[in-house]
Amino acid sequence: MDPIHKAKLKRNYVQIVNDLEPKDVVDDLYQDGILTDNDCERVTNSNKTRKERCENLISVLTKRGPLAFESFLGAIRCSKYSHIADLIIPDVTATDSVPCGKNGENTSNSNDACEECSPYFPVSFLNPDIEDILKRHCCLILQNVEPKDLLPYSYQEDIFSEDECDRIKTGETRKDRCALYLKELSKSRKDKLIILLKASLQKKYQYIVERIQQPFVSAKSCTETDSVPISITPRCRINESSIERSTVLNQTDPCTRYKKYYVNTDSSTSQLKQREDYFSQTLKLEEDRDVNCTKQKHTKLVNCTNAYEVKIDNCPSTKRTRRDITPEEGQLVTVSGTTEIVPFLMSPGASKPDTLPNKRLDVAFNTLVSMMNRGLFDQFNGLTTRLRRRYRTDFDMKCVLGYLQANLELHKSNFDGAKKHIESALTICGKTTNTRYFTLELLGTKARMLLYQKKFETLQDVVDAAKMIIETDVVASSGRAAGWLHVQEGRLMAAQIDLLNPTRVNFIGAHGYLHDRAKASFEKALANFQEDKSEYGPVGFVYTMCRLIILLLQCGENGLTMDILQPDPTVVDMAGKYLLHVSGTDVTSRRVLSMHYHIANCDYHFRVGNINKAFECAETAHDLATLLDMNEFMVHAHNRLAFLSVKVPPSCGEINEADLFDILFGSDSCPDTSNIDDETSGLDVT
């Protein structure tokens, strides 16, 4: 947070602590991306008294970047605390400014840290580039960063060892821990240390990453009297979210991007798509996605002067990249125009697909996936056991087998078995030929397990860790691993939508925010599944398309918002196009995909007013979920059946003559009457 904004909060500290209930504003701050899930829990649950919660909230806000202040003002304006905003705003004028050199950046010509920060910095760094960045932004880092937030990623990427992490944690104060962190960092010689540092800061300190990426302003061009204006106008979250949704609706119809993908126009063949179309379709999709990212960026940040300041969730990383891919190599082109040639590895062995080990890996994976999808679990287990015995030292094979066995256990809702296979496979990832990709696959499976268990906070941590892996090398991490990860992220957002309270004032804004994030995640997943050559490519694509349709129709993941939300008619039409596209695939051959297809079909027919057809689709989906023993989707289909059953008009079927006489005059029709024929016995009912 800017120093002048910190001063305003400090000046009104007593009034804020005495009057504010943090629980009333954390939802708005979370919606704006100022607070994370852990921050919200820390503020609302960890302290016993309201004043302690207020103190905790202000402590967190002062370390959350330049947008935290205006978001806080907007939150208290929209709540019942407008009198607090009235106290703060008169102290903040439109001419308020922060002198250059006092805003966290050292603008002197010297390569040393400023006088205030120099006691916390080591004498020298083994990596001169990281030294230059840290000393240039010494105040920004020392005043805001909590090293404990960076240690998990630093340990994962082998920046620090376990002993070094423990040593950093021993600091009594935050600045002491910063000093220990800088001391250990000065000993590292890693080539990609700057990239790893930015990735570790990305989750909670994105504004610091953006400041680091800005061009350096020397003291010659910025004197002590120069100033940087600060906007204090609170943002309106509901209007902003509506602008985002209208921008998304105006984008090119994604159905045109996918219309040639996996469509089976010949019923005599089960092949969904030739493999050579992957690269050409991926190129077009990436170009469209970059255009959409640019449109949304300019919609939200019209006055933004920072070329690297990206705040749209469906952009792949903070610094946008564009990929130009040839079949032989991958070409990574940055926005600055510099080009770096890197191997194009979508999955282990993709660079040399004709070698025997890679053919063996692909054949094993596709064969086992086919067995699992057809329900041949005994054959699956038998083949897996034989492969484990045969390839005891092939860690790539062992990792693939662990990944597939974990997915099979999840299919059976055996979470303990799935966790065992995931943890076992993660221990050998470092010995494989592509550690990053295998780790990403297993984290995606772990995310799926946590989603089934409704452990949303832990799931968010796993997704964030996996996204950091993707951002370090977007090209090498593409494919089914990234695809399934984005699917779980999208379903996490959709599950959080189901938990929203429609009676809350900020329901519309929160729903729009989560809806757009889920939609962006599903679109990223579709892009990655198009790049995958295995049998999981078509499966993942159709599955994701069904989940996207369910999201767009807003009946809820669990089917409990069918009468609460109403999507725009243009969105319903778009979902119908997607559904028509999915119906052209070989979806009915796989019962799992057929179940998701019928749930999506149910939602679509309900939105267009065809209640009978919607009820039939819900029944089919429920029967398939019961047959597959998938409890989660049995509940989803049951909720739809319960809602639609009261809306389906009663049907009167025809009764034949024999049944008619049995009902009216049979022995069980009226036990108190005689069976002797009366004058009506000769009645001709025909």
UniProtKB/TrEMBL annotation:
Q: Which InterPro entries match?
A: CARD, CRADD, DEATH-like_dom_sf
Q: Per UniProt, what is one Pfam family of this protein?
A: CARD
Q: Any idea where the CARD domain is?
A: 1-91
Instruction: Provide the GO MF annotations for this entry.
Output: death domain binding; protease binding
**Biological process terms in GO annotation:** regulation of apoptotic process
State the PROSITE patterns in the record.
CARD
Superkingdom of the source species: Eukaryota
Protein name, entry field: CARD domain-containing protein
Origin organism is Mizuhopecten yessoensis (Japanese scallop)
